[in-house]
Design goal:
4 domains; 414 residues; 27% strand; 5-stranded mixed beta sheet; Immunoglobulin-like
């Protein structure tokens, strides 16, 4: 009987149905809508808050505080989901068991969506400190300044970039080398060590015989390395002696010069005519008034040269050493007739003519140095008037190199 009674109660309960209340269901639907708006708003505000916290962590705190920011975000999210639990409790009290299960299933899906938000915030909080590096060194205005952590490497040593050969040079030369941006250089010469910095040109007068060595370093802290060397060979010694007085030994105007030099080949250079261009002696042929520049060069066995230069003043033009007056009555034969003195010495073919300045008539003519003019006019056989200047003219058939072929002047009979 007891079992039958229990079965009756079970059957009655299974077939029991609550009466349908449409107003209650409508009220429940409104509450669910409100819940959805509230939960969505919570998600938006939570995301905005977490982004703000992440940006604040970038500007204010260092990277070590990023974990604390994550924990704060997680706690905030958990607190925002609490009103959902109370709302579910109310729904359970007003709905049947099956409806409550549906609400719980829907609630779990929305809660799962809320729990998926933090990984997005974690991604932002992780990326911000690494995407823009922080610099703790500030300038005077409090603004971070960027510093170089990878300075430009020092160029490697390269001796060929600054010098092309180490050929031997001669005493007296100037050794020049352009500046180098690759290395500093040290020059050792004549017992001295000379230091040349980057981009500093080398200019060194080689006054002493010996060896020149050059080294260069590969940077501010690089070791100096040997680049090369060359010898400074001796230049031949030379000494030039000049007799500045004119010499007419052979009828030509000469200035004698001589050179003292040993084991050297000599050569002469001048702006005027020289009678020789080799050997230890030479002569300037001083045909015209002015300045003669003479340079003698000595070439040594090692290929080195020495030279010496002098300037010589020539005070007058060469005019065959002719006088400008004569006296037919003189007892001195050198003064009793007229013949340019150089013609009596040079032994060169010539033609002498005496001309009347009034009409250009020919008064006298000779091609022999021993046949001088004695003052007689060949036109009438009489002595020309005294104290009158007559024109003389000499034409040389074989003038020497550098000499003009015609001379002229005036002569007066006393």
């Amino acid at each position: 009987m007891k079992d039958g009674l229990e079965n009756s109660f079970k059957e009655a309960l299974n077939n029991f149905e609550l009466p349908y209340d449409g107003q209650a269901w409508e009220s429940l639907s409104q509450k669910l809508s409100a819940k959805k708006w509230y939960q969505a708003s919570s998600v938006k505000w939570s995301a905005a808050l977490l982004v703000a916290v992440g940006l604040s962590a970038y500007f204010v705190i260092n990277s070590s505080n990023s974990n604390t920011a994550k924990l704060t975000v997680a706690k905030t999210t958990h607190q925002e989901t609490k009103p959902t639990s109370s709302l579910v409790t109310i729904q359970k009290e007003t709905a049947n068991t099956s409806d409550v299960q549906k609400l719980e299933t829907k609630e779990n899906g929305e809660r799962k969506q809320l729990e998926e938000v933090p990984p997005i915030i974690e991604f932002i909080s992780e990326m911000i400190p690494h995407s823009i590096p922080l610099n703790n060194e500030n300038d005077m205005n409090g603004v971070a300044t960027e510093t170089s952590v990878n300075p430009e490497p020092t160029p490697s040593f390269n001796g060929s970039a600054v010098i092309y050969d180490f050929k031997n040079r001669c005493q007296g030369e100037t050794f020049q080398l352009e500046g180098s941006r690759y290395n500093e250089r040290v020059v050792t010469y004549a017992g001295k060590t000379l230091h040349f910095t980057y981009n500093e040109a080398i200019s060194l007068k080689l006054n002493e015989v010996g060896k020149v060595s050059i080294s260069g370093n590969s940077g501010p802290y690089g070791q100096y390395e040997f680049m090369g060397s060359f010898d400074v060979n001796p230049a031949p010694s030379i000494s030039l002696t000049i007799d500045r007085n004119l010499n007419y030994e052979d009828g030509l105007p000469k200035i004698n010069m001589s050179v003292d030099a040993t084991d050297a080949q000599l050569s002469w250079v001048s702006n005027v005519k020289l009678d020789t261009y080799q050997g230890k002696t030479s002569n300037v042929l001083a045909f015209e008034k002015g300045i003669a520049i003479v340079e003698v060069q000595a070439l040594g066995a090692a290929g080195c040269k020495s030279k010496e230069k002098e300037m010589i003043s020539i005070s007058e033009d060469y005019n065959l050493l002719a006088v400008n007056a004569f006296n037919p009555q003189s007892m001195d034969s050198r003064n009793s007739s007229f013949m340019p003195f150089a013609l009596t010495i040079r032994q060169t073919p010539f033609k002498l003519m005496i001309l009347d300045p009034d009409n250009g008539g020919l008064i006298f003519q000779s091609t022999d140095a021993s046949n001088a003019w004695d003052g007689i006019d060949r036109r009438d056989g009489k002595m020309v008037p005294s104290n009158k200047a007559y024109i003389w003219k000499v034409v040389l058939q074989n003038p020497v190199a550098g000499e003009k072929g015609e001379y002229r002047g005036t002569i007066v009979r006393m």
